Structures are given as structure tokens and as C-alpha cells.
């Protein structure tokens, strides 16, 4: 066929092989029957999942986990693909060196090496498949990161109400002035979050050509926003340590007060019940504190990594550390959603 010849018409549908059985027709009734026959635990799972994604915070937590987990898995698959290629290359070199020197031996070694290198690749294509899946997971991670950045564009509204709450608290009649250090940490945390969010918003909108921001300026804004994020994480870690020390001191005081009340006029059964309630409350508080502390410990190196233009860690390490806050947040959401179902 020449270029001038018309192309043959395309078939209206792909013909089926005579040896293959006809594709079964799926009726609506069979679909409904299949759905109704699903086990009850499937409905419970979907209900809990729907509860998790029904709020912006829950959706962001799931996106966070998938984003960093896909980044980690992408790097693992890419490394596995490269290691497979390196192993084949070592096989080629070892096989080529096993032949005797000389022209005929060199040619035989080269031909055998090429056959070893290419034959398995054409048969399975494992390295190419791993690399292809790695690139898709990397694209997924980048897309979810972009979605989360878009969702944070309205983060300044929440910080406005955070600031308003601090101002209104000082005007209330039952206001108790916090310690100087606690007040400084609270105001510094708010200021660092505002600076982080404002700079990230400008850089993000500049990257989307909404604002006239040069690429160099965008990179600088992203670095500085991450530095303010790192400042907030450091302040929050300090606040958490201070809360733990204060809680331990308060717990000891409450135990002494409970023992004194029990020895004076409280019923032993009531005292035991109050003790169990206090221990349960303490256990719940400590569990929440540990989750928050571990989350910020995982974020700390990531904030430092992004505060440098070229970064400090590999993508695999970033994905591993970033998956920790995601798992903690999703785990807490999943547990909370189970209570509501």
C-alpha cells in the first residue's frame, strides 16, 4: 500500500476469536444481586471510610498518607528496577570474563553476554515494569501534593479565627493570664503559621501563573515558608514537652488529693471508681500526646529538608517520614469513625 492509497476502513467492533467463549451479558438485576450479596463487613468498611472523608481534615489526612506512601513506594520500585539491571550487567561481565582471551573467545563472550542481558528482559520486562509503576506512583504523589496545597489556600481563614480566639480570651471575665513563656510560644506559633501559609500561597499561585512570581522567587518563597513551618514544629515540640511535665506534676497532686479524700469521708467504692476514671482519662490524654509528639518528630526533618533549595534527604526518606503523620492521623480518624458507625 502506498501513501496515496486510502486506508482500509476500521471495523465497527473488534471481532472475537472463534475459540473464545462469548462475553456474558450483565443485567441490572445481576448487578443488584451482587451488591446485595456483599458481606456486611464491606458496608461497615465503606461507612467508616465515608465518615473519614466527610470532613476536610479527614480528606487531607487520607491524601497525606497516600501522597507520602506513594512517594516511598515509587522510590522502592525504582531502586528495585535499577538493582535488577545492575545484577544483569554483572552477569554479562562475569560471563564475558569466563571465556578465554582471543578474538574468537571475545566474540563468543560478547554474544553470550548480550543474550543474557536481552533475553530475560524481553521475556519478562520486570525492570521496565517496575520503573513504569514507579513513575506512575511518583506522578500520583505529585498530583496529591498539588491537591493538598490547593486545599491549604484557605488556611489563613483558620488562622484568623485562631488569632481572634486569643484576643477574645483576654477580654473574658474568667480570663487567667498564662505564663509568660506559654504566651510567647502561643503567639510565636500563630505568627509562624501565618508566615508559612502566606508565603506558600503566593508561591503556589505564582507556579500556576495566577500571580506574577518568577520561578526563582517561587523557590525562595517555598524555602522560607518551610523555615517558618520548621519554626512552628520546633515551638510545638517545646510546648508538648512543657505540657507533659505539667501534666505529671498535676497528676501527682490529684493522686494525693484523691487519697486524702478517700481516707476522710469518701466511700471506698466511689473512690475506686473515681480512680479508674482518672486513670482512663490519663491514658487517653497520654495516647493523644504521643500521637502529636510522634507526628511533629516526623515532620521536623521534613521541614528542614524543604527549607533547603536542594534538600537534604532522599525522596525515599521523605516518603517514609511523611507516611508516619499520615498513618497516625488516619488511624485516629478510623478509630473515631468506628465509634460513630
UniProtKB/TrEMBL annotation:
Region of interest (Disordered), ranges: 1-25
Organism superkingdom: Eukaryota
Protein name: Peroxin 11c protein
Annotated organism of origin: Zalerion maritima
